[in-house]
Amino acid sequence: MLSHADNEILTRVGPGTPMGEVLRRYWTPALLGEEVPVPGGDPVRVRLLGEDLVAFRDTTGRVGLIQENCPHRGASLYFGRNEAGPDGTCGLRCPYHGWQFDADGACIDMPSEPATSTFKDRVRAKAYPVHESGGIVWTYMGPAETMTPFRDFGTETLPADKVVATKLHTTCNWIQTMEGNLDTAHISWLHAWSAAADIADDGTDKPGYPSNRMTWKYWMHDRAPRIEVENTWYGFRYGGLRTTPNGHTNVRITEYVAPYSTIIAAIPYNTRHLMVVPIDDHNCWRYNFDAQVQANPQGYGGAPLFDASPYDTAFTRRTGGITPRTHVAANDYLIDREVQRTETFTGVSDFVSQDMMVTESMGPIYDRSTEQLGQLDKAVIRMRRLLIGAAKALAADGTPPPALADEGRDFTTIRAADKTLEEGEDWRYLGTDDDPAVQEALQSLVAERHPVAGD
Ligand code: FES
Ligand SMILES: [Fe+2]
């Protein structure tokens, strides 16, 4: 339960709000690179943290992200012409009176004023710096003096043929989506289907790595996982511990990287980010991107996991672009009540749409002053405490929020593992550099990319 005041701090993201100021200290996904695919191509609208912007790739290939409304009299630059300007410059030209702005927001041409006028040198559009990495155009919207280096989750060295980035529009406050990502208990309910309990033991219900198929069985077998949370330098990680049918303990680890990223467990481990980016207070994007070459590309999100299920997999198999929505609030997420009675827990055929149904139906901003939290909500509580604490500290005395890029911080070491434990084995080393499965996977990835020369 949260006070109304803390709920406001947690959920509001516009300029000048405490959480909005926290989020503006991080490099943040603004759009997919493929939304502005070619130099001189069409501009796109970008709404981010409650601000209306327009993105364009200028005729030299550089991406600009500037205020949508023209600084002159406010026409939308979305309708502008992306073209070369005078003296080798280039940028977006407003369709109203022809003023032109480059990727830095400088007014480079003002043809509606006398040729002798120097007025254009004093006019600027608000522009944010951008950085392209991993198929995403990232931006920094905070004060220039507090800008920290780009946080490299591994995308900076990701081979071009391994870049995978998608985004999915969600019509609720970003915190509701984050809470779903930090709630391993719900997979035993929301995503359940009745036949999962009948999956035959394929011999992997023992200490070690289960098959993807068997993990579904575990989720159905133990529907009240124990949650153990550990604080880390980047936020926290938590284990969801379930008893397997053969009496072992399976752990699914979720990583939380402040402020808006989660990495969900996979076998043997996962490095794919699910990043929740607020569009405004009532909407967010779910970015899903590969930050490193996957240890097991067939793991979570891949075919075998979902092939074991009765769900549509078209969305989960996507390798790029804006994921279309077909199951929305207006059509009740295409819920099939007969299927719900007989086959699946929700009657909603698409896996991610099951999440949408529950998080969007809470309303655009859920009032947390009336909720009743249980043991299963430990990670949700930890995230809220961290975020509200960061917002209050930044507002009080300028304390920088956690997990910013800093000397010695390696964001590529954050990995979410899934394993069935040996008797007495502690889950906390899993997915770290000390995990033999990590060392083995990294060695084989290196060998794959840099084969030893020889005959
Ligand atoms: S409103 Fe854009 S140039 Fe006049
Ligand atoms: Fe879910």
Automatic annotation (TrEMBL):
The keyword rRNA-binding is annotated on this UniProt entry: no
Keyword Iron-sulfur among UniProt keywords: yes
CDD domains: Rieske_RO_Alpha_PhDO_like (cd03479)
Key words, A-Z: 2Fe-2S, Iron, Iron-sulfur, Metal-binding, Oxidoreductase
Domain Rieske per the UniProt entry, residue ranges: 27-139
Source superkingdom: Bacteria
Pfam family, one: Rieske
Protein name per Swiss-Prot or TrEMBL: Rieske 2Fe-2S domain-containing protein
Organism listed in the record: Pseudonocardia humida
